[in-house]
Amino acid sequence: MDSRNEIINAACQVFARLGFRGCTTRRIADAAGVNEVTIFRQFGSKEALIREAMKRTHSVDLAPLPDVPTNPERELTSWSESFIQHLRLRSSIIRKTMSEMEERPEMCESASYVPRQASADLCHYLTALKRQGRAAEKFDPKTAAAMLMGAIFADAMGRGMMPDVYPQPEEKAAQMYTRLLLKALGVENGAPRPTTKQTKRAKQLSA
Amino acid sequence: MDSRNEIINAACQVFARLGFRGCTTRRIADAAGVNEVTIFRQFGSKEALIREAMKRTHSVDLAPLPDVPTNPERELTSWSESFIQHLRLRSSIIRKTMSEMEERPEMCESASYVPRQASADLCHYLTALKRQGRAAEKFDPKTAAAMLMGAIFADAMGRGMMPDVYPQPEEKAAQMYTRLLLKALGVENGAPRPTTKQTKRAKQLSA
DNA sequence: TGTGTAAGCAAGTAACTACTTGCATCCCTC
DNA sequence: GAGGGATGCAAGTAGTTACTTGCTTACACA
Asked: What is the pTM of this model?
């Protein structure tokens, strides 16, 4: 039962390098150190194998974002950093998947799980930030989330190809995007700004 | 000499749909309404044909951005809109190119021309904006440019796959990203804010 | 009217593709 | 030690791939 795992891992690697058409059963077998026939005995067909391999690579858990923001810059920065790292580690396979998706729409479901989850988490956090009255500017959480995630995604996909287009140093990029976003939202790192409701309470407290 | 053009166009279409490995000479010939042998007589090899086809698809001129900003919101929004439209029209071929690039690095040069140009134009504009003293916040032009372009790029690539993750309506997305960026930079649409140098002159003038 | 050039067509090459079959070998378990 | 399941190996199938060759047709130009 171990060869099964090795085959799936090998399939992931070869797929990331060469895409669906390029990852032939022979190449997968070579990479797995296994006879080509074993693949067909284990999975029935190349398509079934790739389906399993994709299911595995795309089921990942993201770093969580707190339900109640306390330090937006720190919390968002560390989320952004873990997200960009996730994308960078998988940039090859993500590129391949995005390119195959039109031809093989069944890949879409598993592949879109992570970005959907990330977007939902981020939107939820930004909405909480807004409700806390910490944002000086009006903004649409979905647009803001798409902006930050888009910047991170493009960086992870494009930096290898055009390093001079993206901010330096690479390790600070996620932080820089995050800070820029927080400025757009008018979020400072101090205590929540009073909302109209909170104002009375705040005044009473300070009196 | 006309069949040459039709072959190149067909090659672009088939490549956009199926990528390098999927765009077989037979399929290209069918799409061009031409005998397969003609391809080899005209271009010598499939690789040479694809090279020419890529050269053609990636040589595009972008909407210009003025050297001297006057109305940042209007100017940047219309630039963003033309950029996102450019990417949307070519999303299939861009996805394919990005996915093939690791395997065929020679594609990189022609494919990276447009985003490099766009980044340079945008950086130049944002730097001018800064020098004019119109930005209330300090910012790194390259980071800001990467952020806006990243948001636009991710939208153009990802909306088809996950429409609910991106801001609605689609036609306003570029504008929304642009506005968010301008807020991050602290740019208002009025006259340039005085810089320290300009302050004296401004005071003299107003006195 | 003759000539050159671009194209079509039919056929064929060698390599590769996913996938199958038959048989030998291993190791685990009863 | 016998049986069974997983694996390896050699061979083969039918289809596809890029690319070639030889011959024919069509049109343009002189």
From this structure: 0.90
